[in-house]
Amino acid sequence: MIDTIAFDADDTLWHNEHLYSLTQEKFKRLLAPFQDAATIERRLYATEMRNLAFFGYGIKGFTLSMIETAIDLTEGRVGTREIRQIIDFARDMVRAPVELLPGVRETIASLSVSYRLMVITKGDLFDQESKIARSGIADYFQHIEIVSEKTPETYAAVMRRYHIEPPRFLMVGNSLKSDILPVVAVGGNAVYIPYHLTWEHERVTDEGVNAGGYVTVSRISELPAWLARLSAI
Questions:
Q1: Which residues contact 24 (CB under 8 A, 6 or more apart)?
Q2: If we measure between CA atoms, which residue out of 19, 212, 85 comes closest to residue 10?
Q3: What is the distance of C-alpha 164 from the center of its chain?
Q4: For residue 207, what pLDDT is reported?
Q5: Which residues, other chains included, contact 116 with Cβ-Cβ below 8 Å and sequence gap of 6+?
């Protein structure tokens, strides 16, 4: 019997990845006088991956990676005007409204009656806390965990902290790499809800896609009916 449901936040409860995609397009236009778009995109991603160990996930790390990439690709010729624009890009991302995905509010409200609900998300602490507070659904969650990485060890530690047995735990998210496969690996349940945009770092191989042990639904509003069928078995 599942009694605790944890949700990823970005691109599971509200839109997020499109902000990074739009900002990356602005960044490529900004550096267009120096490099072609494909080179800018490739170098930015490589810089982000290198910087994850230092700055973690989120807007701040993304911004520092854009600045470093701009310096590298222009051989130091990038000016203060361009750096200022990159910082303004970041401010626009932070100030962007929190837009819930369709069906989220109603589904979360419904499930909160019968289940203990949690948020488990990774990223910058300030940014994630701000989005959760502004989402309008924070009061439905009994626990909120903002973590630096989502590994099997991370989920196992969260379950121990709240005295949750893995078979009674369900994780819902849009990333197979971060939300689904690590939970399955420690004996928990997982529901995968694909989002139309996926950051390259979150993509998995065909082997991961076909690993099994999880359920896929197309939208969050399908979750209560799936849980009802599961309880009836």
A1: 41, 44
A2: 19
A3: 23
A4: 60
A5: 3, 4, 5, 142, 143
Closest CA to 13 of 95, 113, 134, 115: 134
Is residue 100 classed as helix, strand or coil in its secondary structure? strand
Model confidence over 110-138: pLDDT tens digits? 999 999 999 999 988 999 999 999 999 99
- Token readout for 1 is 């019997």
Reference 110, options 233, 230, 226, 232; nearest CA is: 226
Who contacts 203 (Cβ-Cβ below 8 Å, separation ≥6)?
A: 177
For the record, the structure tokens of 201 come out as 């770092």
Q: For residue 16, what are its two tokens?
A: 């997020």
Report which residue type is found at 189. Answer: N
**pTM for this model (two decimals):** 0.91
CA gap 169, 25 in Å, rounded: 39
User: What one-letter code names the amino acid at 218?
Assistant: S
